[in-house]
User: Which sequence fits this backbone?
């Protein structure tokens, strides 16, 4: 590790993980945090789930959403991935001097709309202002509380033969934001997939223990999320390239920008590992829910190459998909 | 209101309040948020309390603490002021490219130490990195959850004759930070009062309904916090200047910098309005607790000048203490 923070530390890949492992976990260790889920399941009267996320995205407005919608969906989805039904959000804003108030109004309206769809309330907040040049317009933190409705989700419960499901087209958010950022002047129908997964997870909860683990593949994309499931375990995930739903526009945008959709952030998708006996049932539960109509089984859990994610390519080859290493997509959420 | 964000919007005074009233409340209105407490009391299985705060302080290290200690105490105290016993914290970090990792380690250690003293666990977190020049080293957001132990705290319960108590010396945090920021090279023993009020509030909870309302006078100081108690009500708070505990070093530092300790931030103090019949009992409860040994009754609730805070000066005069209006102390927490 270098001795200063670099943009790589924010990519969601290996350097981000090193910060957590080498600095944060040793300092704060406790059972809830050590589980390293998207959210923490807490002891207490009501089986609480808590999660937090900060949003530093550039640009703040992008096709399919803005930083406000993202700030709601990101945290709501993290609570969902930990098995919680999201209920309350806190909202912390860091405003840069000079931010137009109309922009703040517009972001507040997006937050309200997304919160309404996700069925959560913004119950407490805080606003700070920093001098011009000490921020980048607007940073948002949200923390979310939910009540546990889908207990026991954990990668520890994965077994050989389990099915790997993705809830729809992969990589849309990352590709849309990077294309917007590149300012290439290209007309594209590419949109972020930013959406709350509250209803989809309520639907999946009916499958109970058959669902082993859930993750929303944000920074680092599907490839990084799946690596987190199997690393340091005797298990392997084998993906079938042909089975992975990728929009033609997303693939084209990624080709243009030199990106891989499997490493591009998603903000309205989940990956699920499910008991193979219940895979069709889980797939149907996801497809019935909003934003789930293009869900697909994309792979299986095996013991072929412990700790690794393999991609069985269209050309009948096998490619190892490692965790994101550099800052392929900094400030993507 | 101007049409862009100015530093005044972050002062904790009138301009900050205008953001809340004109932008955030209309967008997110719900009962918990509308109460505008330091934290929100939530419905749910276990009578939850939730609060959040972002910390953008400059400098990040100051006599008596650092941004890490502050990030724990600030949110812990907000949960306490809403009547909660704090239990869990989330931690969101926004790191600027180039931040030394040793500094991050040091801040993480401060967070761990303060969390330990406050008896809270850091259960979930998130880290983002922004490019050099798009931040100021390190911004921290914490959100806190607690369980309600002191129900019903509300300024609505204030009555004529109630006593106003402050839990110790006023203005130390703001004065210490501003003096550190001024880099005057002055040797001073002045320290921030940054501390968790968990134990003090547990002690006060025994006074039950006699405690009408609590507030930690952070940005905007004691004068602004008390104004928030009486504004738009038929009540007035009358303070006795001689009764307000102010350290000689703090007064001297404020005199040097042109500040008023009554408007300087505190990070380990509370103001309480208490039934006059129980004022001595509440004072004793505060004094028994850590950080409470210099608590004092500093005023009373009256109907003399509805909606206002009056200071009865040493010279037998009366001065109106309005809410902080400008950015007297930006980025103080």
Assistant:
């Amino acid at each position: 590790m270098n001795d200063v923070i670099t943009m790589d530390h924010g990519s969601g890949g290996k350097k981000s993980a090193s910060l957590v492992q080498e600095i944060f976990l040793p300092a704060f260790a406790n059972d809830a945090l050590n589980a390293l889920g998207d959210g923490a399941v807490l002891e207490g009267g009501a089986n609480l789930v808590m999660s937090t996320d900060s949003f530093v995205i550039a640009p703040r407005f992008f096709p399919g959403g803005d930083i406000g919608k993202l700030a709601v969906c990101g945290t709501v989805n993290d609570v969902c991935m930990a098995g919680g039904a999201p209920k309350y959000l806190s909202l912390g804003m860091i405003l840069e001097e000079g931010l137009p108030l109309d922009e703040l109004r517009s972001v507040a309206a997006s937050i309200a709309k997304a919160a309404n769809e996700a069925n959560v309330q913004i119950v407490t907040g805080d606003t700070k202002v920093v001098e011009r040049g000490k921020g980048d317009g607007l940073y948002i933190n949200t923390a979310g509380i939910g009540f546990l409705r889908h207990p026991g989700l954990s990668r520890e419960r994965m077994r050989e033969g389990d099915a790997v499901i993705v809830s729809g087209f992969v990589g849309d958010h990352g590709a849309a934001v990077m294309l917007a950022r590149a300012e290439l002047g290209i007309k594209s129908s590419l949109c972020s997939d930013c959406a709350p997964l509250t209803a989809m997870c309520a639907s999946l909860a009916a499958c109970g223990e058959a669902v082993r683990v859930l993750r929303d593949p944000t920074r680092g994309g599907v490839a990084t999320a799946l690596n987190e499931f199997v690393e340091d375990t005797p298990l392997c995930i084998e993906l079938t390239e042909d089975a992975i739903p990728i929009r033609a526009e997303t693939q084209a945008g990624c080709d243009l920008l030199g990106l891989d959709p499997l490493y591009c952030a998603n903000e309205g998708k989940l990956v699920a590992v499910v008991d193979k006996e219940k895979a069709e049932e889980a797939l149907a539960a996801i497809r019935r829910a909003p934003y789930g109509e293009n869900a697909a089984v994309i792979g299986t859990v095996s013991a072929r190459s412990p700790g690794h994610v393999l991609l069985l390519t269209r050309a009948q080859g096998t490619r190892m998909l490692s965790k994101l290493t550099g800052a392929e997509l900094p400030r993507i959420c």
